[in-house]
Amino acid sequence: MNKKIGLKSLLILIINKMRQRKTKQAELIKNEMKNFSNFFDAQTLHKEIIKKDTTIGIATIYRFLKDFQNEGKLHSYLCNRRAIYSTNKENHCHFTCKICKKTKHLDIKKVDFLKSGIVEEVCHFQIDLTGICQDCLKK
Ligand SMILES: [Zn+2]
Ligand SMILES: [Zn+2]
Ligand SMILES: [Zn+2]
Question: How high is the mean pLDDT of the chain?
Fold first, then answer.
């Protein structure tokens, strides 16, 4: 037997196995993400994933989250200096009161109007509004 070919086919076998594993991991993570109807963070997702596959580490989760974002299947936002993700929410909106400094989330249903006049292709919106909250207005 030719040793070179033997080694080469072994390598192909290993690469195929790695690819299969990556596809399986991607499927598992994708399915798990579907269970979050709202925003989630990487740690929460990881906690759910390891119930099904203990070999998947947090670094792998981050790598896939990045891949999914590049594919446009996932949106990422910054919330309290934490990265959060969503498969279906295309905006994340904060209102921060300049008097009491409290921040709350606003649920904006339609942000499509914001796209008018923008020539770039928009993926999602992160909106930070500042003003005076209802409590402070009453004072
Ligand atoms: Zn996006
Ligand atoms: Zn937030
Ligand atoms: Zn306030």
Answer: 92
CA of 124 to the centre of ligand 1 (A): 4
CA 131 / ligand 3 centre spacing (Å)? 8
Strand partners, 83: 78
Ligand nearest, relative to CA of residue 137: 3
Q: Which residues surround ligand 3, an ion (CB under 5 A)?
A: 97, 99-100, 133, 136
For the stretch 38-54, what's the b/e string if a residue is b when 16 or more beta carbons lie within 10 angstroms of its beta carbon? ebbebeebbebbeeeee
For 12-38, how does the pLDDT look when each residue is reduced to its tens digit (9 = 90+)? 999 999 999 999 999 999 999 999 999
In the chain, what are the domains? 3-73 (1.10.10.10), 91-138 (3.30.1490.190)
pTM: 0.82
